[in-house]
Amino acid sequence: MDYTKHLRVTAFVLTATFLFLINPGQRYIQAQDDGPFVSQEQYEYWQEELSNWGRWGPDDELGALNLITPGKRREAAALVKSGVTVSLARTADMVESIDNPCPIEWEMINASPRGASDRIIYRCIHGAGTTHIDGFAHRFFDGKMWNGVEMANTVTMEEGAKVNAVLTMKDGIVTRGVLYDIPKLKGVDYLETGYRITVADLEAWEEMSGVKVGSGDAMLLRWGRWARREMEGTFDTWAEAAGFDNTVIPWLRERDIAILGWEAPGYTPRPEGDLPTLALHDFALTMLGIHLIDRSDLDALAEMAEQQNRWEFMLTIAPLPIPNGTGSPVNPIAVF
Predict the structure, then answer these.
(1) Sign of dihedral through CA atoms 306, 307, 311, 316?
(2) pLDDT tens-digit profile of 14-51?
(3) Distance between CA atoms of 4 and 101, rounded to whole angstroms?
(4) 73 to each of 70, 168, 170, how far by Cα in Å?
(5) Domains (range + CATH), the chain
(6) How far apart are CA 23 and CA 129, in angstroms?
(7) 106-137 residue pLDDT tens
């Protein structure tokens, strides 16, 4: 046993608990004032050192989904004990607001004694108000997407994504999901604007919860976005959010996860000297081949995990079979 690491994690948890006990009315934990940033040079080095390009062959379009084997799905199914289900998606929002600048459009087409019909339009599949999964054709590094594919002539306005489209996930995703509830770790309702979640936070949560992500798993990161919205009202999550610090990138590669889900794609505001907001988002998607569930609502999941006293579960995700699409609205379902 690594006693140094054990003592460090234990001290971290005890400190967080003590801070909460001396101020039990505290609703959030503030952002850190120190801690080194990942430099642009280090970031570029990791693009070479940690890249998964070519790992599953030169023509691969699944990325880390290759890690979800039949055995991994059977492992996930074995986690179902109570049979209780819970959604990880935010209810579709038709109201434009500062944190949903591109709402869905819904209307009834007809309603008569013989039946009724309606239609829905997602004007921005990757919008801040829609829970969605990113396909690899969504983001690029210097014109290259997952597995080194050049986007020129493969992702166009006329034809969409001819390679690495969301259609590669038509058969659905079933794997083990693990919730990392960092506000629960800290004893608060939500993390404050700009809080940088580090490896120390993640490993402290693993020590507290008794579970950790591994190969082929889906990792769900909660910082309390929707809890804050419920208490404080709408706010601009592009400008005010907690999230992963970029120092977590090698840890994500080491854990070899297949799916990463979160409530916001990065912490903001970014202090001077830090990398852009989507640095980790883009690295995970493009270099590691990890599909992302953006804009999840993990509050109901956190409540259910608390009730069940379990932070691992079977997770199912069924993207819409959109030809040439760069992403899809999704309703991920956790089964306990």
Answers:
(1) negative
(2) 444 434 443 445 677 777 766 899 999 999 999 999 99
(3) 47
(4) 5, 18, 16
(5) 26-335 (3.50.30.50)
(6) 33
(7) 999 999 999 999 999 999 999 998 999 999 99
